[in-house]
Description:
Blueprint lengths: L1 E5 L3 H6 L2 H9 L3 E6 L4 H9 L2 E5 L9 H18 L3 E5 L1 H13 L4 E6 L3 H5 L5 H17 L5 E4 L2 H9 L9 E3 L20 E6 L8 H13 L4 E6 L11 H10 L3 E2 L7 H5 L3 E4 L8 H9 L2 E5 L14 E4 L4 H13 L1 H18 L2 H12 L12
Parallel strand pairs: 1-2, 1-4, 2-3, 4-5, 5-6, 6-7, 8-9, 8-11, 9-10, 11-12, 12-13
Helix pairs in contact: 2-15, 4-5, 5-7, 9-13, 12-14
Amino acid sequence: MRVGVLGTQARDLVNFRGHLLSELARAGHEAFGIAPGGNEATRTALANLGAAYVPIQLDRTGLNPVGEALGFLRLWRTLRRLRLDLLLCYELKSVAFGTLAARLAGVPRRYAMITGRGTTLQGATSGLQETLVRAVVTRLYRMALPRTRGVFFQNQDDCTFFRDLGMLPDSVPRRIINGSGVDLAHFAPRPLPGGPVTFLFVGRLLKNKGVFELVEACRILAGRNVPFRARILGPLDTNPNGITAGQLEAWVDEGVVEYLGELADVRPALAAAHVMVLPSYGEGTPRSVLEALSVGRAVVTTDAPGCREVVAEGVNGHRVPVGDAGALADAMENLARNPELIQRFAQEGRRLAERKYDVRLVTADIIDFMDCGKGKAHDGAR
Length: 382
């Protein structure tokens, strides 16, 4: 079969879907990674996995109706040209646009993967424009998801949320998977570093990732004379919910956090940290936390969809209420003052990664649900 995987950022095709594309190719399929923003390095990386890179023009955060209509038209033309037998779409815009464009392009087998509710459906911002955008997004999902053969969710909370809002009919099969998985060998265990306890945040710099709460928690710790370091790793984002460059610079100048920028390889930053902190308002399954667990790091996160699944309170980390900087500071202080807890949580985190989040297990689950394993390469091919 000719199988495509459609996303909204080319780098994620390799980082998040690389193992899936590789296994599809190994099963005998012609595999295509489809996303905007790629380059020759993307093409080479996918080729090394046995897949072809297909560039598209699709604005992940665009809201201009004319631009969105043109993006949809260009995507439809690309999918029609590729003559795919199966398309898996993930992330909001690729699911909404990709599923509908694939149907019009005659792609017979269409699947969607919900990797989280996103800023829009979380209600992280308010106002007339945001309300209208949520209404449009909800409508697009109600149009797209019934036209799939199945939908993947990364946690049960999101599955229930989509069903309750009428975006997922009971007639559509669904499968709960353990996130995107993590390469346990690539993110091998690393010894904890010396020095003061170092907290690390990894992710896009968005308000609904809990960045403001993290900064406020660090201020509280500094006021309590707790010895620690706090580092932020990740890109600024064009999302309306994004942290501005000026705000980030002010935090760094204040001395409350360090900013590491955006790294192609996060492993050195993980190795230099003791604890991963993700005070998110909700995720699908946070890949950054899976990588931290695999390396052997304690985690502090929130009791929010997608986050509560990866941390068992008092076993491999701490969970705190969403939006509660005081509770976040208390959890961070507990670890900073009790390093033996960090060691115990780190060991339990690695065990959890091995048991539940191995990328090989997750990929096998996805392929099984889509019924495109070995021996299925030519079924239904054109």
